[in-house]
Amino acid sequence: MPWRCPACQTQVKHDPMDGSPKPGTRYRCFVCRLDLVFIDSASHMEIAPLESDHVVAPPDSRGRRTIPQPLSPPKKPR
To answer: Are 34 and 47 in contact (CB under 8 A)?
Structure first.
C-alpha cells in the first residue's frame, strides 16, 4: 500500500522495510510539509493535530503605533 498525503496525494517517503505505517507515529509530507499520522482503524493517513506550542498569542491590546509622515520641504518662492 503506498503511503499518500491526504492533502496533495504525494507518496510519503519512508523506510522500504516497513510494510505499513506505525499507528501514532508522525510522518511528514515533503511537498506540503504537513505532519501526518496513520489511523489504523480507518487504514489511511490523516493530518496530525497541532501541538500546543503552536498557539498564536492574541494581538496586543494597546493597539498599533503609527509612523508619522515626513514633513514636506518648504516651497521656494518664484
So the answer is: yes
